[in-house]
Amino acid sequence: DNIFSKNKKQKPKQKMEHKLDKETKKKIEELFKEINIEDLTSSTANRTKISKHQEIFDIVDNIFSKNKKQKPKQKMEHKLDKETKKKIEELFKEINIEDLTSSTANRTKISKHQEIFDIVDNIFSKNNFKPKILNEILSVVAYTLNNYPNYNKDNDNDNNNNNNNNNNNNNNIDTQGWEERFTMDKVPYYVNTITNEVAWEKPDAMKSQDELDSESGSWRWVPDEELAFVPGREIDTTAKGDIVCETDSGEHITVKKDFPFWPLLKSSLLLQNLKSDLVLIDNMNEGLIIYNLRERFYKNQIYTNVGTILISVNPFQRLPLYTPEIMSNYYNCGGNKRMPPHPFGIADAAYKSMKFDERNQSILISGESGAGKTEATKQCLAFFAEVAGSENHVEQKIIQANPILEAFGNAKTLRNNNSSRFGKYMEIHFDNRGKIVGARTENYLLEKSRVVYQQEGERNYHIFFQLCRGDMAAKFGLEEGVDSFRYLNQSNCTFAEHIDDIEEFNEVVESMEILGFSPEEMDWFFSKAAAVLHLGNIKFEADKNESGCVIVNKDRVVKAAKLLGVKPPQLGKVIRSRIMKIPGQPPTDIPFKPFEALQACDALAKDIYGKAFDYLVRRVNQAVAIEGQKTKNTIGVLDIFGFEIFENNSFEQLCINFANEKLQQHFNQYTFKLEEEVYKTERIDFTHSDFIDNQPILDLIEKKPEGLLVLLDEEIVMPKGSDETYCRKICQKHMKNDHFKRLIKKDTAFKIYHYAGEVIYDGEGFLEKNRDTLYQDLYNLLNGSSDQILRSLYPPIVQSKKGKGIRSLGSQFRTQLNNLMEKLFQTDPHYIRCVKPNSVKKPNIFVSKMSLEQLRYAGVFEAIHIRQNGYPFRYTHEQFVRRYKCLALTDNGWVTLKNKSAKPLCKELLDMTGQDFSDVQIGRTMVLYRAEQQRLLELLRNLSLERVCLVAQRFIRTTLAQLFKRRMIEVRPLLRKALKVQNDLELCLNALDTASEQIGSISQVFDFEMREVTLAKDLRYKLLERKRVTELLEKVQQMDPEANEESFNMLYDAVSQANAIESYPFTDYQYQVTQKVSSKLQLSIDRRACMEELRNSTTDADKDRINAAIANAQELGIGNCREVGVANRELSRIQEEEKVLAGLIQALERGKCCQFTDDAQQYIEYEHLDAAIQKAEAFGMRTYEGRHDVDLAKFVKHSRYHLKHSVSDWDGNEHWDAIEEVLNNEDIITDDLRENAGEVLWLIGEMAYRTRWRELIVPIHTAIEYIQQDQLESLLEELKNPLEATEDQMYRMQQLEDQVRDAAHELLENVSTCKQMLINSAKSKDENELIEAVNFGTELPITFEKAVHLQEIYSVAFIELCMFFHITKGEREQTSLMLYEELAAATSASVLSESGSVEIQKDNILNELQTQCQLINDAIQFVQDNGVTFQTDIGQHTYKK
User: pLDDT tens digits for 811-840?
Assistant: First the structure.
């Protein structure tokens, strides 16, 4: 990497010199001995993955490492000495000249010897390399390449050592002129430069000896119990002629001499020789085919071709094979590339054949249950949706139909967790541009018996479990869970692996919404499924006479009847008895036994579910319906039940196997019969292929007059027809038929030898299942349902002249099947044969014998045989000439063709190629050939086309671009006119159709769309949507929205859709229709709202609202409706109520108390209220005023009683406890009374007044008395908050507040003044000030025993004053100080002074004071009684008692 790296620290013009010593060179040579030139095609980015030869990197990286110690002006030189040149020669000995031509983009595939390419990549990667060293390297490389050629490039990279040895051994092989070359799309082919012969396969002349040896040997296939067949080498022959073979494991197996001899080349077993197309298998036989399929299966290559037939082996796991990128690869595949087998390949072939050949196509997907048919169908549909698309996204609706149909039609079986229990043929319609325009689905033979019965380990249909576990369970009465329903719990299997019922139910709902199902439609389908479950849970027991039965749980009948739109008694009757009508006699009611009643419920459940499923398919078809007459061609995808052999096989299995016989016949006719018919018509040589013709089996089942199903239809109309008589009849008719056998073990059992194997059928129940009809009573019940959709599914039965009504199920199925086959014969079929590799549904398990049987039954081996021996590729003479005339183009130009007519031209074209086309057959009208010649012809054709491809593309693109521009200019005026007019749908469609015809096909070449086309498409969508909505409005405009809820909902939905597209263009007519229907709906909405208001106002007895609603009803034209009549009657009642209310109000006015006076208590009255209240309650007060005044009267009666008798302090301010108790009694007083009743408000205000007096006025008086200055100030602040009461109460409170406020402010001011005077005089010890302060305090209206905070100050000042009277000034100071100290010491408190602490007995202090002045006694007494703590200028003093 660093050979020519720059040294940033070097100065300009410095040169670096690096030499390789001998040891380093030798080491490099040794390391490079194992290097392979293949690795030169690796990218530098992948070097980090290499570890094996890391030493090479280390050495090469440092060959020319920078030398920091070099001196300036050194030159940078790189020379290749002899040893280095020798090393390079050794290095390139293994180089193949082809590898030098590989592109860098492909180098990333190589990783083992990344080192070489890294070195070579970097030799020329820097700009400062020297020409001298470059020339040396090139000369060495050229010399090496010329002297060491290498051929073997195809061997695996992991075996490089062996490859190198083989290559050295093959260096001198004579290739006889063969060379390997590549097409433009990098596909290898081989050319003989001597004979000009070309071939896809590697010629023997270019193969190594090992390759040639591996293709010879005496190996054959021998039978094996586990693998069906294993390779064995013949080692001996017994006396009887049997062959003794030795397997790879060393086991000796004797093969009977009559066992088929299938020779085997061991090279066929190599993994790289596994064939993706079984037609290409050497020595085609069952052993090699099953080996090929098995080994591919274990490599996750689950798809294999048999010519145009695809074999799909179910992997039972998710594989990354279905991405949009893979779809694109198949659709865009062309030229010489061959894509691996895949359903996308089949779908692509069908789509392109439809598009270019303009013929209808079909894809027939078959296989037994669990083989993967449903998944293959999904992939084909997904491919069409992805590559074809549509203008209106209908392809997404087609895809979204799958979850819905699977939910209602799929179930878990023993063989498959998501088994389709019905057949379906989905026909996708395309327009002339290959766009999807719609689809239609036909369903066949839903397994209705599964609704009421499942085998152990199987489940009912998915939808039942989804409903029970989804969020709608409670809505349909299914919240009990799946274990509670007989139809779901009988098989002891309620879960399916890899299936989430809740998640999939949400997906079903989402899909229904995308397909345009309304909520009501979704509820309809879900409700019918729920009704089926409830029917299954109805229980019966014998009645007392044991002649009939009674229903045990009638609630189930009610639930089922509600969901079915019938009356419960009617449902209960028809499931417990039936009416028998005998001509000439009155109808007879025949009661059912309990088990017969259960059978009636089961029959009803099956029939309802079956008809609901048919209706679901029709509804899905409606959602993806084909638009107009746009269909040009179709592709049908058939996903139908596979061949079934169960332990118990009944009528359903006979129909299913009959359908598979039909499909096998189609396969046989298309693959064998028609194939050979073509050969005969063309008069060419061919080898006849024997195959199993199943026409006799079809005749046995359906041919008139003795076919099994034909006789079954006859038996159901026979008066005494039964299963036993039917079985006896068919055994008698077909006893000599080789494909039919009567069984002795049971009268109703018989065996049919189908193409897929022997099946034993039990005829018991055949007649009843074939009738597929309900008892007339059950049918009539559903015919009379209030559910419109359900009723339409059971129309009145019209009897024919012969007395026949509904056709039998077998007859219906035969008709459906014949119609299907008629459709299929009109299409070009493509086949997907699905194989189930094991019965345990586990991945990575391939049971060879089981798979082999399925291949035999499907006719795969015969198909392979006829593909190998026949001529599957064919063109008419004209088509062949048209396709391969380009072969006349050589490197020297066009060769002049001699013939003019098509047939001899075909031979001339083949001859001029110089290839061996002796196997190509030129028939009367067609040229026919096999796959080998097809590939060779296509190779020659593509090589010819490559000569002119680039030039042709250049001219064609130029021409197309010019044509594109001209046509865009031509169609632009018409498009702009449509855009300008806006509301003319026909003009818009015509403009787009014209644009499509003019530029549609050309536009596919360019990734561009005209702006006018884009706008016109958007306009088309809007106009079509407007047209659709207008048609919907026209449909509903005649409906009466007030007739029933369904009509209103349809009208509402139509108008909602119209409102959603309000901004879309419209014509005058469309506007008028929209306005008309909208007005009609609005009128209905207004009338509904008016009637609702009438009901509500009548219920509330609101006179004003009733009058307003009646007036509104008159304006809306519904003045005579029932609600108006009820409202008028309510108005009359309100008038009577108002009279009663007037008396009650009059009683309330008498003796009420709403204002405080000193004598108001004696005028309170309450006794008379009882009579007024009783009268009002007896009448029944419904208006708000009436109910309010009754409640008020009840409360007033209690409150007046307590005001009269329980309140003693009427004119005081004490709290009224009795009144408070009344006010807090929620049974008496309501919130409404608290807010709106005057007498109540007065009481509440009075209580608030007295509470305020108690909580503020009284505490203020106390604070004044005790001179609590802080508290007083806080209370005065609270006094500022106003009282919420009546004006009278607020006025009274204001008087009290003003009094206490003034007294409090005056007291606070005087106390503050007194306090300051006492403090100042005590500090100054001025006699006059002391006298003034003491006198001021004495005059205050306070008691010092209560005024605690003034006690200490006043006492000190008073003591100081006494000192003035008895002690001189000088003594006074000393005595005063001593007095303070002794008083403090007497309480054990330390008083610090200049003289220190002085301890004097308390008694001495008191005696001293008493002798000095009698006036001090009061102060002393106060101190003795109370004790006092105060602060003076000499500290804190405490006087205690």
Answer: 888 998 999 999 998 999 999 999 999 988
Cα separation, 930 vs 927, in Å, equals: 11
Phi-psi region of 841 (alpha: psi -120 to 50; beta: other; left: phi over 0): left
| Residue 416 appears among annotated catalytic residues | yes
Find the distance separating the first CA and the last CA of the chain, reported in whole Å.
108
Q: Which of 314, 374, 942, 1286 is catalytic?
A: 374
374 assigned to active site: yes
Answer yes or no: are the C-beta atoms of 939 and 196 closer than 8 Å: no
Helix, strand, coil % over all residues of the chain, rounded to 5:
55, 10, 35
Q: Which of 416, 633, 983, 1112 is catalytic?
A: 416
DSSP-derived secondary structure letter, 672: I
For residues 493-532, one letter each, b for 16 or more C-beta atoms within 10 angstroms of the residue's C-beta and e for the rest, the string is bbebeebebeebbebbbebbebbebeeeebbbbbbbbbbb
* Cβ neighbours for 1287, distance < 8 A, ≥ 6 positions apart: none
Phi and psi for 1077 in degrees, rounded to 5? -70, -40
d(CA 1303, CA 1296): 11
User: Which entry of 232, 287, 307, 370 is annotated as an active-site residue?
Assistant: 370
Helix (H/G/I), strand (E/B), else coil: 759: strand
pLDDT tens for each residue of 1371-1406: 545 555 555 454 444 433 333 333 333 333 445 544
Q: State how far the Cα of 623 lies from the Cα of 514, in Å rounded to an integer.
A: 9
| Per-residue model confidence (pLDDT) at position 66 | 40
Q: How many whole angstroms separate alpha carbon 565 and alpha carbon 604? A: 14
CA separation (Å) from 79 to 64, 74, 914?
11, 15, 53
Check 84, 410, 419, 827 and give the catalytic one.
419
Active-site residue flag, 369? yes
- List 420, 671, 773, 848, catalytic entry: 420
Is position 1274 annotated as part of the catalytic site?
Answer: no
Give the integer Cα–Cα distance in Å for 427 and 442: 8
Q: Which of 163, 164, 369, 748 is catalytic?
A: 369
**Is the whole model's pTM more than 0.90, yes or no?**
no
Q: Which of 211, 644, 682, 1012 is catalytic?
A: 644
DSSP 351: H
- Indicate the helix (H) or strand (E) that contains 35: none
Q: In terms of Cα–Cα distance, which of 1230, 1224, 1266, 1273 is closest to 1247?
A: 1224
Catalytic choice (232, 367, 642, 1337): 642
In the residue annotation, 642 being an active-site residue is answered as: yes
